[in-house]
């Protein structure tokens, strides 16, 4: 009788474990650009979308388990994805965001603190520098993007800055003139 109870208990544990693993791996992809792009297409188009996602750039945020990617949707809107490193060199898609602005700034939480993520596109390299101003006046940063058509810059936020989303972006050309974006 004890053996039957033990076998049933182990069977229930194994079935539960199988479903937990199965569900937690829904958006886990190989750390390879084509696989990441396929995963992003599935993630963004769930349950029945028909958007075409093209991966533009991906990189790991230094000394963290977080990867960030820049992608385009239907050759227009620009978006980003946050992915976390998992076992066996796999990445799990955590969330995405996109919109019509060509350059955006978001905060990304990692296992090593918060980072400001500047991402987007800079066609014809019109923008030379982006000035990021925290609206609370506690943080200002200039980012040189003069050689970057695809922008993906992640910098650790100072401790006094909680969120990057309370920031404004000011764009400058190579002569230092403001550019309206």
Automatic annotation (TrEMBL):
<keyword id="KW-0472">Membrane</keyword>
<feature type="transmembrane region" description="Helical">
    <location>
        <begin position="7"/>
        <end position="24"/>
    </location>
</feature>
<keyword id="KW-0812">Transmembrane</keyword>
<protein>
    <recommendedName>
        <fullName>LPS export ABC transporter periplasmic protein LptC</fullName>
    </recommendedName>
</protein>
<keyword id="KW-1133">Transmembrane helix</keyword>
């Amino acid at each position: 009788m004890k053996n039957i109870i033990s076998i049933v208990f182990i069977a229930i544990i194994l079935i539960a474990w199988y479903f937990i693993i199965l569900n937690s791996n829904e958006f886990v992809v190989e750390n390879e650009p084509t696989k990441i792009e396929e995963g992003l297409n599935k993630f963004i188009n769930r349950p029945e979308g028909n958007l075409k996602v093209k991966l533009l750039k991906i990189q790991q945020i230094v000394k963290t388990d977080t990867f960030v990617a820049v992608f385009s949707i239907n050759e227009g809107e620009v978006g980003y994805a946050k992915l976390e490193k998992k076992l066996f060199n796999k990445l799990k898609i955590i969330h995405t965001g996109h919109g019509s602005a060509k350059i955006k700034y978001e905060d990304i939480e990692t296992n090593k603190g918060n980072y400001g993520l500047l991402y987007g596109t800079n066609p014809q390299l019109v923008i030379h520098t982006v000035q990021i101003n925290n609206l609370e006046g506690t943080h200002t940063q200039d980012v040189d993007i003069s050689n970057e058509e695809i922008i993906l810059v992640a910098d650790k936020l100072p401790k006094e800055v909680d969120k990057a989303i309370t920031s404004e972006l000011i764009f400058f050309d190579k002569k230092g003139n403001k550019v309206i974006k």
